[in-house]
Amino acid sequence: MTDSTPAATPESVLTLRELAVSFGGNHVLRSVDLEVPTGFTGLVGPNGAGKTTVFNVVSGYVRAAGGDVRLGGETLIGVAPDAIARRGVGRTFQTPKLVAGISVVENVMLGLDGRAGPLAHLRAIAGSRRDSRPARERSLDLLERFGIVEYANEEASALPLATQKIVEVARALIASPRLVLLDEPAAGLGAEDVEAMVAPLVELAADNDLAVVIIEHDLALVSRLCPRLAVLHQGGVIALGTPAEVLAQPEVVDAYLGAGFAAVGP
Ligand SMILES: Nc1ncnc2c1ncn2[C@@H]1O[C@H](COP(=O)(O)OP(=O)(O)OP(=O)(O)O)[C@@H](O)[C@H]1O
After folding, report:
1. Taking the model in full, what pTM does it have?
2. Measuring CA to CA, which residue among 170, 155, 68, 71 is closest to residue 111?
3. Which part of the chain is the ABC transporter domain (predicted)?
C-alpha cells in the first residue's frame, strides 16, 4: 500500500435510501438516507421524529411507503420480521417485550427463531424448535457475559426493568446478527445497570464485528459509545458525523437540543 492509497470507506451493513413512511396523513419519514457501517451509530432526534419507526421498517414491522432498506446488498422490503431476524437483524424494544410464563433462558432462545416481536408470545406457546442443548448453552453463555445468569430459570416478565432490558439485548444477540438495533436501552436504568449492559455489549460488538444502531436520549452515553451520530428531524437525517460535529450544528441545537445546550467535549 502506498501513501496515495485512498482511505477505505467503511462498508455499509445497513443502507437506507429515500426511505418514506406514512401513517394515514402523517408523513413521519419523508426521505431518510443513511449508511450504517460496523461499530456503533447513534440515532437521535426529538420525540416523535420517527426513530422507532426507522427500526420498525428495518425489522419488518412497518411497511415503507417508498425507498429501500438494504442489509448488505439485499433489500429487506417485503420480507417478514422473523425472516429479517434470521438474515441477521437483532433488535430490542423501547418497552421490553418478553414472553410471560417462560424463563429468562427460554426468552433469550426465542431470538434464534427471530421471535422477538409482538407475536412471539403466541408462537412461544407452540414451543421453540430451537430448544436444543447447544441453544440453551449459547443462551446461558450470553446471560453469563451480561452477569445475569443467576436469573436464567426465573420468569422473565417478573424481573426488574433493568434485567428485562439486558435479557432483550441478549435475545437480540443470540442468533449472531450482523446488525443490532437497540431502542433506548438505557431509558429508566441507573448508572450501574447501564454499565452492566454496555460493557459486555461493547466487547461482544467488537468481537463479532457487529453494526449496532442505538436510539438514545442520554447524549452523554450515546456520545461515549458512538463515533457516529445521525440526527432525525422532519422526516430526514439533518446531521451526520461525530458527536462533537453533530451536536455543535446550529440546526441540531434548534431542532433537538434547545438553545441552552452546550456540547460537552471531547
Ligand atoms: N403504528 C403506528 N400507527 C400510527 N402512527 C404511528 C405508528 N407508529 C408511530 N406512529 C407515529 O409516528 C410518529 C413517530 O413515532 P416514533 O415512535 O417513530 O418516534 P420516535 O422518534 O421514536 O419518538 P420517541 O423519541 O418519543 O420515542 C409519531 O407521531 C407516532 O405517533
Report:
1. 0.90
2. 170
3. 14-259
Alpha helices in 160-190 (DSSP H): 161-173
What gap in Å lies between CA 44 and CA 88, rounded to an integer? Answer: 23
C-alpha cell, 23: 401513517
Nearest to 49 by CA among 213, 207, 212, 217: 217
Helix (H) / strand (E) containing 54: helix 51-58
Give the whole-angstrom CA distance, residue 165 versus residue 19.
28
- Fold of the 11-88+177-266 domain: Rossmann fold (3.40.50)
Give the CA angle between residues 90, 108, 94 to the nearest 5°.
55
Phi first, then psi, for residue 66 (nearest 5°) are -170, 165
pLDDT tens for 189-247 read: 999 999 999 999 999 999 999 999 999 989 999 999 999 999 999 999 999 999 999 99
118 lines ligand 1 (CB under 6 A): no
Which residue, by CA, sits nearest to atom 18 of ligand 1? 50
Helices (runs of H) and strands (runs of E) counted in the chain: 10, 10
Query: pLDDT tens-digit profile of 114-136?
Result: 665 555 554 554 455 556 888 89
**49 Cα nearest atom in ligand 1:** 21
**Ligand 1 touching residue 142 (CB < 6 A):** no
Name the DSSP letter for residue 95. S
| CA pair distance 98, 179, nearest whole angstrom | 20
